[in-house]
Write a sequence for this structure.
C-alpha cells in the first residue's frame, strides 16, 4: 500500500498500513459462503498430505536404523531429515493454501488466531475438525500402504520419551508451539506487509523454518507435537495405550503456547494493551466531561 492509497482515516492516524478489523466471534454468515467450505476442504487436504509424508519419513527412519533388520545409524535421513520433512512440508503447504484458508494446518495456530480475533469461532472449530480428520486419514493411508512397518515402528505416534517427566514434556510443547505461532503472527503482520512487499511471498519460509528448528530441539523429548491434529491422528490409527495416556500433553502444551504467543504479539509487540488502556481512559474522560 503506497502513501497515495491511504484513506483519510489512516493518514490522520499517521499509519502507513491498515490493520484488518477484528472478526466477529459468532460469524454464522460464513456458513452460507462457498469460500468457507473451500477453506475447510483445503485445511483437510493440507493436513492429510502433511501427516502422510511426515509419518512415512518417521517410519522410514526407524526401519533404516533398526540394527536387527540390517540397518545402521547412518543408513537413513536421521533426525535432521525428519525435521526437514516436517518443516519442508509446512513450507510447501502454507505456500499452497495460504490464499485459500490461511494455511493453518494446525489447531494450535487456529486457536492462536482465534484469540487474536483473526478468525471466527465457527471457522476455528470447523478448521480444527477438518485438521484432525485430515491427519487421521493421512496416517490411515500410511498404515494401508505400510502396515508391517507401521505397526513395528510405532506409527509415528507422539509419546513422552523415557527419562523425561511430564513437566519437561509439557514445557517443550509450550515453548515449541510459542515459537511456531509467534512466527506465524510476525510473518503475516499487516504492518510488516505494508512496508516490505516481499513479506507475503516469503511468509511460508520462516513458518516452515520454525517447525524445522523446533523439531531439532524437541524430537528427543516428545517426538515433537506442537500440532494437536498431528498427535491426535497418529494416536487414533496407532491406538496404543501409552500414546493415549500422553495425548493430553499434545493438546494442553500447544494450546497454552499458542495463547501466550497471541497475547505477546497482540498486546505487547503491537501495543494492544496500551491501545485498550487509552480507549478506556478516553471513554472515562468523556463521561466526566
Amino acid at each position: 500500500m503506497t502513501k497515495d492509497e491511504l484513506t483519510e482515516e489512516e493518514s490522520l492516524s499517521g499509519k502507513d498500513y491498515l490493520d484488518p478489523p477484528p472478526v466477529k466471534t459468532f460469524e454464522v454468515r460464513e456458513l452460507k459462503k462457498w469460500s468457507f467450505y473451500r477453506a475447510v476442504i483445503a485445511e483437510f487436504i493440507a493436513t492429510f498430505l502433511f501427516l502422510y509424508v511426515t509419518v512415512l519419513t518417521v517410519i522410514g527412519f526407524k526401519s533404516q536404523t533398526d540394527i536387527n533388520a540390517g540397518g545402521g545409524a547412518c543408513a537413513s535421513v536421521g533426525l535432521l531429515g525428519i525435521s526437514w520433512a516436517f518443516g519442508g512440508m509446512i513450507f510447501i503447504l502454507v505456500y499452497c493454501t495460504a490464499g485459500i484458508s490461511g494455511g493453518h494446518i494446525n489447531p494450535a495456530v487456529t486457536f492462536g488466531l482465534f484469540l487474536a480475533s483473526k478468525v471466527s469461532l465457527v471457522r476455528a472449530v470447523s478448521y480444527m475438525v477438518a485438521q484432525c480428520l485430515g491427519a487421521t486419514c493421512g496416517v490411515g493411508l500410511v498404515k494401508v500402504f505400510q502396515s508391517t512397518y507401521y505397526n513395528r515402528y510405532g506409527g509415528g505416534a507422539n509419546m513422552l520419551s523415557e527419562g523425561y517427566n511430564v513437566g519437561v514434556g509439557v514445557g517443550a510443547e509450550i515453548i515449541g508451539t510459542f515459537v511456531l505461532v509467534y512466527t506465524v503472527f510476525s510473518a503475516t503482520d499487516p504492518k510488516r506487509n505494508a512496508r516490505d512487499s516481499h513479506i507475503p511471498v516469503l511468509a511460508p519460509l520462516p513458518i516452515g523454518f520454525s517447525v524445522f528448528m523446533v523439531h531439532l530441539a524437541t524430537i528427543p523429548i516428545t517426538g515433537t507435537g506442537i500440532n494437536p491434529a498431528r498427535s491426535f491422528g497418529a494416536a487414533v490409527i496407532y491406538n496404543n495405550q501409552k500414546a493415549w495416556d500422553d495425548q493430553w500433553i499434545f493438546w494442553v502444551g500447544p494450546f497454552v503456547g499458542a495463547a501466550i504467543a497471541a497475547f505477546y504479539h497482540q498486546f505487547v509487540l503491537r501495543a494492544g494493551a496500551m491501545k485498550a488502556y487509552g480507549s478506556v481512559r478516553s471513554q472515562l474522560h468523556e463521561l466526566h466531561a
Q: What stands out?
A: The first helix runs from residue 8 to 13. The domain at 25-287 is CATH 1.20.1080.10 (Glycerol uptake facilitator protein). The chain has a mean pLDDT of 87. The radius of gyration is 21 Å.
